Amino acid sequence: MKKNILTIIILAMAFINIVMSAVIIFVIVPTSNKTNNLVTKVASIIDLELESPEEGDTEIAVSDITTYDIPDQLQINLKKSDEVEHFALLNVSLSINKNHENTVEYEPLIAEYDNSIKEIVTEEFQKYTIEEVTNNKKSIKEQVLTRIQDLFKSDFIINVSFGNIKMQ
Fold it and tell me: Which terminal residue of the chain has fewer beta carbons within 10 Å of its beta carbon, N or C?
């Protein structure tokens, strides 16, 4: 009689094991496959976003770049770091991609927007003290370039240069 009860318990445990295996196969595996597919799609989208800016950063030949110099030298008061007033004297020039689709349309308008460009440069420089300007020239150039591109709603201007910077 004890052998029969033991056999019934073993048979019940085997049946429970089969039922649990079926639950895992039909419920958990498809869900984990869907999750895996979702993670794969998200990862591929992130990779595409990381690659797309690099595609836009194609090398532009020097012969395809023209420069526009803002005619006046700018004198910009800098943020105070001590009791002395500091200022920067600088020239601004814009590098323009001649092969960009918007160049023909927007390049003649740059002269009309001289004052707006000067204002953008002035506002960006005024945010910094004389020490910060010395240490953050690259950041200032990036901010000025971004704001000028936003002004024209185009990226035909590819670089901003500050020449003859004198700070006192």
Answer: N
What global pTM score does this model have?
0.62
Amino acid at 89: L
Domain boundaries, the chain: 1-58, 62-167
Q: Which of 90, 81, 75, 69 is nearest to 127 (CA)?
A: 81
| Distance set, CA 93 to CA 19, 71, 83, 123, 163 (Å) | 76, 9, 32, 17, 8
Split at pLDDT 50, 70, 90, the class of 1 is low
Return the CA Rg of the chain: 32
CATH topology of domain 62-167: Tetrahydropterin Synthase; Chain A (3.30.479)
Both tokens of 30, joined, read 């498809």
